Structure formats: C-alpha cells, structure tokens
Amino acid sequence: MPNPLAELTPVLEVLADNIDVLPAAGKAVEDYLHPDPEELEDTLINREMGEVTAFAETPTPSLTSLYRPTPPLPRIEQPFYRFFIDGSIRTYFLATGIEGNRSFPIELAQVGAAVIERRPDGNLRLLASKHKVLLLLPKGAKGISDAVWHQLEHFDRSDGLVELHDVSKTHALNREDQEGDLRNKAGAKARHRMHELEIEMIRATDGSRDAHNWLILDGAVKLDEFVESRYLVGVAKSFRKDPQFYLGRRSRGRGEDRRDVTAILAGLPHAHRTAAFSAYNGKVAFWYVRLREQRELDYPLMGVVKVELPRPGGTPVEAELADLISRALVAERNVTPYGRDRRWHCHLYPIFMAEQAIKNRFFSEDVLLGAIRWPQARAQAGPEGQENVGEGE
After folding, report:
1. How far is CA 148 from the centre of its chain?
2. Whole-angstrom distance, CA of residue 291 vs CA of residue 265
3. Which of 13, 143, 319, 378 could pair with 104 in a Cys bridge, judged by C-beta atoms 3.0 to 4.6 Å apart?
C-alpha cells in the first residue's frame, strides 16, 4: 500500500538535514487541547461582546420580557434548515526542532470541514467536504530560519493534501497572544485553517439557500471577517460565560442595570429563547435557546446554545424571524445518550453527522503513525513520547 502522506517525506528530509530533531519516539503523539477549545475560541473571536448594551430585535424587548416561547417546529410541518456545516481537527506533536540556540515544537494537524444536505424526504447526504494535513512550525526569532523555510516552501502546494503553516503569524485566534506557548499557537492556527475550510463549504451552498432552505454553521459567524451570507445562522454549543448585560435606563455603574449571562440563562425555560442582543454595532444579532429541560441537566448553562445571525446592514431582527429560527432549531435537538460526548446536551443531529463525515476522512492513528517517520539516519534518538495535552472538535 502506498504511503498516503508521501508528500511529507521530502519535507521531513529537509528538516532532518538542516536542524536537529528530537522525535517523539519516532512517532506522532496526538495533542488534546484544554480548556474547552470552542469556549476559548468564542472568547477570542468575540472579544467585543464582553459587554452588551443594546437589544437587536424589533419590537424592542423590555427587561421584564427577556424570554419568548419557541415550541418545536418539525420539518414535516414547515421545512427550514437544509444545510449543516461543521469542521473537525486533530493535532499531533511530532518532534522538538533545534536550530542554533532556538528550540521549538514541530506539529501536524488534520483539519477538515463538511456540509451535510437534508433531502426533501428527510434523508441526509454529504454534499461536499475538504480535508487537509498541516505541518505547523514557527518561523523567525523563535523557530525555523528563513533559509530553511524557503526550502520547505518548495514543497508547499495549495492544491495538495499537505500544507505548510507558520504558527507565529497573527490571525483571529492568536491576535493578542504574541508571547504564548508555541504548541497552543499551533492548535490555534489549525483551528483557523479549519474555519477557512468551513467558509469554503458555505460557498458550496450558494444559490441553494432561501427562506425555506437555511444553513446552520457550527460556531460563530465572525472570524477575521464577518460571514455575511443570507439565510445562515451560527450555532455555538460552547460559548463564553463572562458577558455582562447593561440594558436598563439607569447609568451603567448602577448594580440594578447589570446582569451576567448565568443569571439570564438560569431563568430561561425549556423551548424558549432570550431576546436578541446586539454585537459589533448591530452587525450581529445573537440570542440563546434552551434545547433541554433544566431538570435533565447538571447546571443551568447546559442544554443551551447561542445563535448568531449576520445583520450586515445593522438592522434589528424581526421577533417573528428569531422565533422561527429558534423553533426550527429546537426541533433539531436529537436524543444523545448521556456520557457518549461531553456536548451531548446540546447536540444537533445533522451537525453531529457533518462532524462524523469529516472525521471518517481523517487518517487513522495507525496509518498516521506508520506514515510519519523521520529519516532514521539523520534523526537523533528522542524521549519516549510526550504527555497528551488536547483535542478540539
């Protein structure tokens, strides 16, 4: 059987020829990211949403009417969601590289995105997917020299399976982390590339979305730029827990005007949504929907998802449209066995299937471990593996 990662062989040879390599016992060791990468990502991407000061809904809600009922709207009663996009990521620590007096991690990631389409008969099918293998290295003062990097770029083809990425480059997920851990930066870079693939999947549905054929994107609708596509919502299973809401008429310094997200969601009944709030000067309307009864769960924020709706013109969302989006979303809630997944309480079945579709394209651990081998004549013997530190989905 040919090596499915043969594209990496000349790249590893260049590294082994030009720098000292301390492999993880000649194998790749999967990284496990902590804390929850999705919640951390929501905090990084939505930095400006720490303080919420306005509603984004018409007619304008009041502090005494923050919740609206959203009973399930089954697909057979009214079709609504047709497309579902999710991405997945697995990162692996390959080795420590040493060049001059600099040492740095060499990491690999498998990233991908898939879009699932629901047919009129209710069956799901894979509409499109993309899968990339990323070699993640720092460049410059903390990593590979320019001379070695130029040699590596010779093998980097944007149309190929393997891509070379500089983890020290600034992007939406590491913009404020200039001195951060390089392994964390590698994970952030991989997640950023995953989101770029998700945006490519959105384009695969262009021309097919309309008022009865909406798309759910797993996560936020803002990365470096806003996703401004119509008939699309972002749905986050994990989200930041620290926003403060200042929505009263009194001055913001008064305690009566402030509510934190936990206080708001603790009172949110099952199959209800909160009012829509404004973010980014009205370019995004967001609200929360409770998918499960609180008595089924361990704490108040479980069973709740955050919904983001792009509003490029800055106009508020009509309450009836937010209700419709939320009712159809409640109907997408699937029965997930407790303990099978840490996010069981807020799974949407088609999004889960999109995640499985891309994971099934990933190389298995056995294939990857067999394919990623440093040139033995050049590599130095290294420590027996590394401690696992994180996975993001």
Report:
1. 32
2. 12
3. 143
Torsion, CA 308, CA 390, CA 341, CA 353, rounded to 10: 60
Tell me how far apart the alpha carbons of residues 171 and 192 are, in angstroms, rounded to a whole number.
8
Cβ 187 vs Cβ 33: under 8 Å: yes
CA 156 to each of CA 149, 151, 191: distance values in angstroms, whole numbers, following the listed order:
10, 10, 19
- pLDDT tens profile 276-322: 999 988 999 999 999 988 776 666 778 899 999 999 999 999 999 99
Query: Can you name the residues that pair with 132 across neighbouring β-strands?
Result: 111
Specify the amino acid at residue 282. Answer: G
Structure tokens at 105: 């991690």
Q: Write out pLDDT tens, residues 34-76.
A: 445 666 666 655 666 668 889 999 999 988 889 999 999 988 8
Helix (H) or strand (E) run with residue 292 in it: none
Tokens representing residue 23 in the block: 């492999």
Q: How far apart are CA 106 and CA 277, in angstroms?
A: 42
Q: Where are the beta strands (DSSP E) in 49-119?
A: 51-52, 57-58, 67-69, 81-99, 102-118
DSSP H or E run through 48? none
* CA–CA distances in Å: residue 296 to residues 206, 261, 299, 344, 349: 39, 20, 9, 12, 19
| Rounded distance between C-alpha atoms, residue 153 and residue 126, angstroms | 33
Residue keyed to tokens 């949407």: 348
For residue 172, which amino acid is it? A
Q: Are 91 and 186 in contact (CB under 8 A)?
A: yes
